[in-house]
């Protein structure tokens, strides 16, 4: 009991004073380890740290993370975001609210390339938010929509969060990728409907209808970017390569397109690409290392079994109540934790219960990821909220509420109708 108190006490203490989440996890875990091994030589205690960290960060499947990050960075610097926006605008820009569809649709496409919510918001927001403001939408509304649409980046494959969940739950990443497609599209539709309703009285400019030639030219220009998700997913499901190998292929493909097709990349750009990719990878791996220590203490103290059994007792073995509890916990946790940390903390606690209740782990993974995607747009720690914040945080926090509610409605549908997630699995 005291071990659990120290673990969570130190964790929340450091969290409250604004310490990075990886440090909170690691510090709380080390404090608990020191208490648990009181009286033993400090060298004996500390020698377990590198072993735990190494085993958690050296999994083959996690090698996909830096390569997917790098491929997203390459395609972003290659100018694919501009081409996707131009392509979408030529097809629906002439319709009332066309830019709303462009915003969400392009976010879905770019999410499939970058695999990251904040990266999607950062790459597209600088173009789409000013365009929507010029079209007559308010800056607050435009920023809120872009921020919400960026959450699709962790749902639509290839998704880094699915890689993390798959590595923890020992679930097929290929199945998780394909299971994320339909839920991502459904949430996108809910965001579009919500945005139309909010802006129904806005005076917006209607763009001239693009000619057939303009549409064809924009399609040809965006073709190589649109092809990338197809190569990645097609290769995985066709048995050509594993998800990790697919990540490597996406880097090579991105470099080929950037250097020889679009010719927007220069050799001097490689330095920035490598620095950006390594920096983000280091953050994720640092969190992974801290969370692995946290999970180790949970297991050693048997707290994970106690929590899992408690969830079974509270739900009475009813999977409907259990999934409701999971949704509530993750929605609250998403307000304070990033998705990687939340996955490492809660997946080992929830998955045994899901297995005991015969819940498909692929479907359960989708439920967890959608919850954490919503967390990316909820204050106070929503990553997308800060990246896409074109106005003050207070106004943004209010503006995203309708989109958060729409996403929660979609979440409830996806939670209790598993056939949606498992449609193509």
Gist of the model:
The protein has 425 residues and is mainly alpha-helical. The protein has helices at residues 2-16, 21-36, 42-46, 48-57, 64-77, 80-92, 98-114, 117-135, 139-149, 160-169, 173-198, 212-237, 243-261, 269-300, 303-315, 319-333, 339-356, 361-375, 383-387, 393-399, 401-416, 418-421. The chain is globular and about 75 Å long.
Structure in words:
It is built from 22 helices and no strands. Helix 7 runs antiparallel to helix 11 and helix 15 packs across helix 17. The model has no long low-confidence stretch (mean pLDDT 82). The longest helix has 32 residues. It is globular, with a radius of gyration of 22 Å. The two termini are 42 Å apart. The protein has one domain.
Determine the strand fraction and express it as a percent band: under 5%
Count the beta strands. 0
Mean model confidence by pLDDT? 82
User: Which bin fits the share of residues in helices?
Assistant: over 70%
Instruction: List unreliable stretches of 5+ residues.
Output: none
Helix/strand/pairing category: mainly alpha
Number of helices: 22
In whole angstroms, the N-to-C terminal distance is: 42 Å
Largest sheet: none
- Write down the secondary-structure element order: HHHHHHHHHHHHHHHHHHHHHH
Question: Which SSEs are present, and which pair or pack?
Answer:
Layout: H1 2-16, H2 21-36, H3 42-46, H4 48-57, H5 64-77, H6 80-92, H7 98-114, H8 117-135, H9 139-149, H10 160-169, H11 173-198, H12 212-237, H13 243-261, H14 269-300, H15 303-315, H16 319-333, H17 339-356, H18 361-375, H19 383-387, H20 393-399, H21 401-416, H22 418-421
Helix pairs in contact: 1-2, 2-14, 4-14, 5-13, 5-14, 6-7, 6-12, 7-8, 7-11, 8-9, 9-20, 10-17, 10-18, 11-18, 11-21, 12-13, 14-17, 15-16, 15-17, 16-17, 16-18, 17-18, 18-21
């Amino acid at each position: 009991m005291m071990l659990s108190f120290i673990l969570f006490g130190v964790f929340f203490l450091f969290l409250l004073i604004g310490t990075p989440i990886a440090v909170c996890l690691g510090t709380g875990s080390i404090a608990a380890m020191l208490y648990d091994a009181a009286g033993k030589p400090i060298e004996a205690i500390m020698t377990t740290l590198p072993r735990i960290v190494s085993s958690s960060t050296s999994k083959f499947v996690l090698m996909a993370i830096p390569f997917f990050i790098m491929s997203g960075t390459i395609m972003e610097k290659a100018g694919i975001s501009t081409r996707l926006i131009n392509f979408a605008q030529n097809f629906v820009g002439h319709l009332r609210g066309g830019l709303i569809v462009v915003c969400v649709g392009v976010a879905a496409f770019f999410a499939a390339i970058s695999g990251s919510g904040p990266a999607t918001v950062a790459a597209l927001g600088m173009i789409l938010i000013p365009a929507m403001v010029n079209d007559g939408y308010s800056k607050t509304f435009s920023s809120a929509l872009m921020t919400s649409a960026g959450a699709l980046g962790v749902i639509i494959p290839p998704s880094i969060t699915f890689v993390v969940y798959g590595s923890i739950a020992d679930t097929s990443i290929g199945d998780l990728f394909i299971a994320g497609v339909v839920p991502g599209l459904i949430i996108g539709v809910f965001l579009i409907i919500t945005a139309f309703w909010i802006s129904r009285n806005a005076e917006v400019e209607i763009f001239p209808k693009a000619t057939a030639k303009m549409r064809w030219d924009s399609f040809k220009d965006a073709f190589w970017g649109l092809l990338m998700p197809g190569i990645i997913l097609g290769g995985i499901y066709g048995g050509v390569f594993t998800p990790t190998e697919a990540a490597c292929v996406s880097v090579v493909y991105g470099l080929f397109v950037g250097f020889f097709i679009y010719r927007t990349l220069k050799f001097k750009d490689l330095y920035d690409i490598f620095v950006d990719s390594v920096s983000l990878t280091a953050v994720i791996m640092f969190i992974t290392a801290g969370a692995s220590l946290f999970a180790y203490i949970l297991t050693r103290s048997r707290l994970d079994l106690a929590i899992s059994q408690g969830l079974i007792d509270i739900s009475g073995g009813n999977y409907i109540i259990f999934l409701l509890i999971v949704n509530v916990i993750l929605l609250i946790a998403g307000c304070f934790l990033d998705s990687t940390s939340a996955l490492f903390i809660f997946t080992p606690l929830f998955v045994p219960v899901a297995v005991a209740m015969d819940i498909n782990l692929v479907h359960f993974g989708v439920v967890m990821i959608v919850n954490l995607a919503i967390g990316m747009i909820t204050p106070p720690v929503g990553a997308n909220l800060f990246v896409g914040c074109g106005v003050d945080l207070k106004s943004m926090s209010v503006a995203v509420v309708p989109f958060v509610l729409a996403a929660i409605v979609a979440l409830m549908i996806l939670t209790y109708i598993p056939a949606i997630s498992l449609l193509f699995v």
